[in-house]
User: Which sequence fits this backbone?
């Protein structure tokens, strides 16, 4: 059983999700309304987009804590482009390009120096945050035309565009991850970096590609964000979201130590967090307490990993 | 010259140390070329230069008579040179199939999709050629070590391997598995693959090699066809002088039992182990890797918990052994893996030696640097140690590291010590010195348990020998029964497991 | 001094401390050209006054990182302590006892962190990420999202008092750093932190109380967050559930700029203090110099990566010496 769960990580995440949904379906009146379920997916779309990128980074045995700043940076750059041009392609292109360049900076620093990724991206977290503030120049972005940020605004056949965007990203990244040398070698790199180094995995190329992708995905997430909220506030420029992103990946079942995880983990994890947040609000827990419930859920969810490991009883 | 691989005057320096001085080595297609030497002779470095893991500092590598420059293992692999390092380079959570294709072109199906079925088929074919039948979807970490080794070789077979470099391939295999592997190597060589077989195990080398090269201190001592070599000439060439390891002369056992273990079990690692050691006695525990020796030692010491059985130290029962309790009762332990379990590599010798004695090195509640240093000097006095005490342990040689580890365990004058592989991978000089220290301990009335997979070592040191096999004690040998043959028989009794 | 020995000195602990002092001196020079107010002793003291809160937390973080862990929850602990203080006092608990409750709640949060890390045997990054959220929820929940600012005037003493012109919190900061330095370098517990952070298995086999030390370092971190919160709450004279947001990253930055490896086993409390001042000076200088505050983030990020790269130069040189081949060796985590 233990090794089964260890191998089929999605199963345990799905089980957690099912238990939660059943629980809230019973105890939170209105939780299962289609509109509520749709709202949950919409709310987690931004986090989930970013988590897809973070999941790749973590599968490769690294971590990117700068993605929150990348979101802000891309968002402000693209927001101003949207305001001045109103063009969909210019806006989305800007967001992706800015995110990718930020990811490239991370990737280069990580690939070519022995500095651990958590330190590099902590540094760039501040750096990108500063650049984002510089671009924002203490202005909030309001009144972005929906057409420019259609990835996150409006809906198609009753399905909100942000959910569609998320689904498309998930499918594309999943296919690419599973069907390219980069994607396959990435998991090997995270599983045994020493072997990857000596056995000819092009580590630098794999790492740089991964960080560029994570940055670009954060760029797309910024468009979804603007599309949902109609603008960017300078108050976005903090780092609360990155912690949720890492939490989503971990809850979804990807090991923080790299090499072990699934492509669906970020989506499952983000949805689980969304279900919890929505469920407890419906149950009447005041919003101010949600972080507490949320934190406890995170601990429980990641702790399940502990029960899928086996070993000798060690004593001190 | 086609189908040949050569190192020409190849030299490798790491910082200021020279690992290999101008080495000339030619390996021809279809031959098994054994490279033999003691630990630290430079044979692994030579193998790694050939396989592109290390660049040559000077000299060159030739493939088919033409100079080749390798900046990475990948480049060497593109010339058909594959290295199977001692520490297998596999990906534990990935499937066997996936492992075979890492950093490789994977077969494609429609729309550029990776063709998983073709991957599996090719993996199965490569494994079948080596006689390994496993489910290729299984994660490598679930396979026994011997099967992982075959997976590593299969990885080379997936491409066009022309030279297979194997570094100590049997180090973690039992006798039966080793024989299996040697057959695989023979078959490969018959099919035209050149094999460089790096080992320090004489009997294996003599059994498999067509050509033998002997290295010592980073230099080639001799090279020639197998027929030129006999065991004694090989030893002489490897060691450079007559082997001067001598058996302990006197049995100093008393009648007082210092440590008694009764019915200790921790299935499936070991089961129903009973033993005792007397003051002044050296008890050897032999057995192949995986026979449960180290696991037993860790349980007696209290690092892991046994499910059944009891431990008595000095006649007093120890209800639930813990590390702290064992240390307080005068039990010392030097673990098997000195780098990962024993030492704090980045920290200096003094800090490493003083760990167990810290509470006694205080002056008015504060650690006293002077006391600590004095303690370390005193503890290291037992050994010849020419480096300074403020050097990081990680910069010392294996022999010196082992001395630091033993100095720590012995400084508090324990009543009983368990030494797990006390001389693994260290040179003859340091080994002789450690043997002398063990004898000295026995002379002072300490009870000593030596665990070793080196049969010669167990024979040289022990007054009494327990042989473990499959988690149980297979034999107890005393007096004239202590022979290589009897140990070997007991260690391998019933070892014919299921061929994988 | 030859080039080789210069490099060796620059890599040594003392050399890095001198490097940080030089950095602070350069900052002082640059900023004093921007603002006449900058290069005054009173401004310097003000910098230490404003950074003592981060500084205290960075000291705890330094110890946690030295033990091989990390504590992302410190900012949230600041909020918990601050809210406990305001909540207790506003519900009739005497100020003195409220303060005890506040600091004790920080300690308790730390003990919870440590216990979870030990019991769950999960990566401390995940554990403290979870407790970050949980503690923040407790702080926001208790305060119901609102601040409290009805403290008596006497409460001002903790964040706004001066002794012979030196801010009280500066003195507390230096004292804590000194005491911690003594504990780390001269006690068995302190040595255990370093040994465990260097390599856990030998530490266990040497009979060190690994789990107790683990719990201890997080408890210390929580306690210092509580003290920091007390100073903060007194300085801004209000108790807030959103206090300390993002402090954890700033504290980690200070430890890393101080030259400690994120992988554990190393610590310098002096350099952690110097690094906190060096980072704090940047924001102070930018504000006084009238520069857009955006630049201060960029400067902090650049400083951090720059210094770490310099610290790792020998490793980089080794990697280059092995030509383009394999990427530099990195430990995970």
Assistant:
């Amino acid at each position: 059983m233990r090794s089964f769960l260890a191998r089929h990580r999605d199963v345990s995440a799905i089980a957690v999700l099912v238990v939660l949904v059943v629980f809230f379906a019973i105890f939170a009146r209105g939780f299962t309304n289609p509109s509520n379920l749709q709202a949950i997916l919409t709310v987690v779309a931004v986090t989930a987009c970013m988590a897809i990128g973070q999941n790749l980074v973590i599968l490769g045995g690294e971590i990117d804590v700068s993605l929150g700043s990348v979101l802000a940076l891309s968002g402000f750059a693209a927001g101003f482009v949207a305001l001045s041009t109103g063009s969909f392609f210019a806006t989305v292109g800007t967001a992706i390009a800015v995110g990718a360049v930020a990811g490239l900076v991370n990737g280069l620093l990580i690939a070519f120096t022995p500095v651990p990724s958590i330190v590099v991206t902590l540094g760039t977290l501040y750096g990108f945050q500063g650049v984002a503030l510089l671009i924002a120049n203490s202005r909030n972005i309001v009144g972005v035309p929906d057409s420019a940020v259609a990835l996150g605004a409006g809906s198609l056949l009753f399905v909100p565009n942000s959910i569609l965007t998320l689904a498309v990203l998930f499918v594309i990244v999943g296919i690419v991850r599973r069907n390219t040398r980069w994607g396959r070698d990435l998991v090997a790199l995270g599983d045994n970096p020493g072997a990857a180094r000596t056995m000819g995995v092009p580590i630098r190329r794999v790492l740089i590609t991964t960080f560029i992708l994570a940055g670009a995905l954060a760029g797309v997430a910024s468009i979804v964000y603007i599309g949902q909220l109609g603008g960017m506030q300078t108050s976005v420029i903090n780092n609360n979201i990155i912690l949720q992103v890492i939490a989503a990946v971990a809850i979804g079942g990807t090991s923080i130590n790299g090499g072990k995880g699934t492509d669906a983990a970020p989506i499952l994890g983000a949805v689980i967090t969304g279900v919890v947040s929505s469920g407890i609000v419906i149950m009447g827990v005041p919003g101010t307490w949600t972080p507490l419930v949320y934190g406890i859920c995170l601990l429980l969810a990641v702790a399940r990993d502990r029960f899928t490991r086996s070993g000798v009883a060690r004593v001190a | 010259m086609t189908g040949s691989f050569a190192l020409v005057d190849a030299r490798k320096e790491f910082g200021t140390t020279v690992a290999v001085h101008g080495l000339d080595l030619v390996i021809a297609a279809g031959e098994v070329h054994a490279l033999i030497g003691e630990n630290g002779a430079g044979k692994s470095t030579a193998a790694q230069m050939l396989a592109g893991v290390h660049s040559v500092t000077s000299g060159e590598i030739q493939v088919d008579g033409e100079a080749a420059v390798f900046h990475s293992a990948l480049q060497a692999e593109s010339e058909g040179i594959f290295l199977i390092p001692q520490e297998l380079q596999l990906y534990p959570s990935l499937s066997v199939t996936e492992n075979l294709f890492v950093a490789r072109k994977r077969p494609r199906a429609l729309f550029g999709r990776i063709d998983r079925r073709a991957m599996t088929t090719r993996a199965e074919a490569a494994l079948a050629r080596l006689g390994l039948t496993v489910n290729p979807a299984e994660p490598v970490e679930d396979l026994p070590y011997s099967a992982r080794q075959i997976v590593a070789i299969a990885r080379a077979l997936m491409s066009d391997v022309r030279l297979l470099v194997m570094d100590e391939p049997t180090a973690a295999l039992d006798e039966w598995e080793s024989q299996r592997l040697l057959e695989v190597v023979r078959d490969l060589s018959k099919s035209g693959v050149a094999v460089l077989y790096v080992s320090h195990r004489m009997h294996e080398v003599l059994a498999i090699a067509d050509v033998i090269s002997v290295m010592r201190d980073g230099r080639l001592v001799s090279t020639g066809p197998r027929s030129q070599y006999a065991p004694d000439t090989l030893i002489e060439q490897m060691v450079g002088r007559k082997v001067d390891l001598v058996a302990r002369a006197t049995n100093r056992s008393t009648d007082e039992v210092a440590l008694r273990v009764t019915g200790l079990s921790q299935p499936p690692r070991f089961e129903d182990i009973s033993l005792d050691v007397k003051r002044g006695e050296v008890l050897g525990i032999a057995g192949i890797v995986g026979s449960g020796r180290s696991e037993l030692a860790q349980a007696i010491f209290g690092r892991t918990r046994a499910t059944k059985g009891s431990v008595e130290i000095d006649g007093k029962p120890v209800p639930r052994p813990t590390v702290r309790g064992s240390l307080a009762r005068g039990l010392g332990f030097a673990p098997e893996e000195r780098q990962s379990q024993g030492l704090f590599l980045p920290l200096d010798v003094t800090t490493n030696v003083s760990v167990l004695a810290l509470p006694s090195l205080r002056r008015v509640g504060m650690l006293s640097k002077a006391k600590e240093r004095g303690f370390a000097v005193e503890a290291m006095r037992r050994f010849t140690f020419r480096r300074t005490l403020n050097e990081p342990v990680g910069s010392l040689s294996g022999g010196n590291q082992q001395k630091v580890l033993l100095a720590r365990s012995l400084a508090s004058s324990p009543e009983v010590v368990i030494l797990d592989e006390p001389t693994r991978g260290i040179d003859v000089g340091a080994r002789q010195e450690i043997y002398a220290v063990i004898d000295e301990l026995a002379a002072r009335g300490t009870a000593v348990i030596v665990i070793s997979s080196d049969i010669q070592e167990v024979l040289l040191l022990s007054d009494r020998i327990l042989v473990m096999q499959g988690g149980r004690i297979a034999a107890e040998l005393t007096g004239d029964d202590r022979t290589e043959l009897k140990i070997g028989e007991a260690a391998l009794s019933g070892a014919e497991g299921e061929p994988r | 001094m030859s080039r080789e020995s210069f490099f060796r000195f620059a890599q040594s602990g003392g050399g890095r401390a001198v490097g940080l002092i030089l950095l602070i001196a350069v900052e002082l020079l640059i900023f004093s050209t921007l603002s006449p107010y900058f290069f005054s002793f009173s401004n310097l003291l003000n910098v230490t006054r404003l950074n003592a809160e981060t500084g205290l937390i960075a000291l705890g973080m330094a110890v946690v990182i030295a033990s091989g862990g990390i504590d992302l929850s410190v900012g949230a602990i600041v909020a918990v302590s601050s809210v406990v203080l305001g909540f207790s006092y506003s519900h009739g608990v005497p100020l003195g006892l409220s303060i005890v409750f506040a600091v004790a709640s920080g300690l308790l949060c730390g003990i919870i962190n440590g216990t979870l890390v030990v019991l769950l045997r999960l990566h401390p990054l995940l554990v403290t990420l979870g407790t970050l959220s949980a503690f923040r929820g407790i702080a926001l929940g208790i305060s119901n999202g609102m601040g409290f600012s009805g403290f008596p005037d006497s409460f001002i003493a903790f964040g706004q008092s001066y002794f012979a012109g030196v801010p009280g919190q500066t003195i507390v900061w230096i004292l804590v750093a000194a005491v911690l330095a003594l504990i780390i370098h001269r006690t068995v517990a302190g040595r255990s932190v370093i040994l465990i952070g260097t390599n856990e298995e030998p530490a266990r086999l040497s009979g060190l109380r690994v789990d107790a030390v683990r719990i201890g370092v997080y408890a210390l971190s929580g306690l210092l967050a509580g003290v920091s919160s007390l100073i903060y709450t007194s300085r801004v004279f209000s108790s807030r559930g959103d206090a300390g947001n993002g402090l954890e990253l700033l504290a980690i930055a200070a430890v890393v700029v101080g030259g400690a490896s994120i992988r554990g086993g190393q610590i310098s409390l002096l350099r952690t203090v110097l690094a906190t001042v060096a980072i704090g000076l940047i924001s102070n200088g930018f504000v006084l110099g009238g520069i857009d505050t955006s630049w201060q983030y960029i400067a902090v990020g650049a400083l951090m990566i720059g210094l770490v790269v310099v610290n790792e130069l020998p490793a980089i040189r080794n990697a280059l010496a092995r030509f383009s081949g394999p990427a530099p060796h990195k430990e995970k985590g």
